[in-house]
Amino acid sequence: MNDNRKNAYRYLLYYFLLTIRTTPVATQPVWNQQQLLSHSYYAGSVAYLLHTLALAAATDFEHFDENAFWSSLSQFSINNPAINLGDYPTVCTTRLAELDR
């Protein structure tokens, strides 16, 4: 895997971490228990999904299986339609296109 591709995956990891960080807590002083539970479920799901990407980034993507990674994200989205992960493939491909210029 070339350096630009590694950078794009690291950027994707950063993107997902921002989605966990930007919670209603940061923008609303008071929010209800349902909002808290919903965001906690989302954050936990994202963390579970990305643990392999984080390990890959930490080990310079040694033994990282790109196809398995994308397949797991796609399957998760199919199985959990209530959790909107956003347009994660576009985030990665856009970053890669920026770096390849």
List keywords for this structure.
101 residues, mainly alpha
Q: Can you walk me through this structure?
A:
The protein has one domain. Helices cover 75% and strands 0% of the residues. It is built from five helices and no strands. The chain is an all-alpha fold and 101 residues long. It is globular.
Low-confidence stretches: none
| Number of alpha- plus pi-helical segments | 5
Strand content: under 5%
Task: Report how far apart the termini are.
Answer: 17 Å
Count of discrete domains: 1
Rg (C-alpha, Å): 15 Å
Overall spatial form: globular
Please give the share of residues in helix: over 70%
Structural class: mainly alpha
Order of helices and strands: HHHHH
Quote the average pLDDT: 86
The number of E-state strands comes to 0
- Characterize the main sheet: none
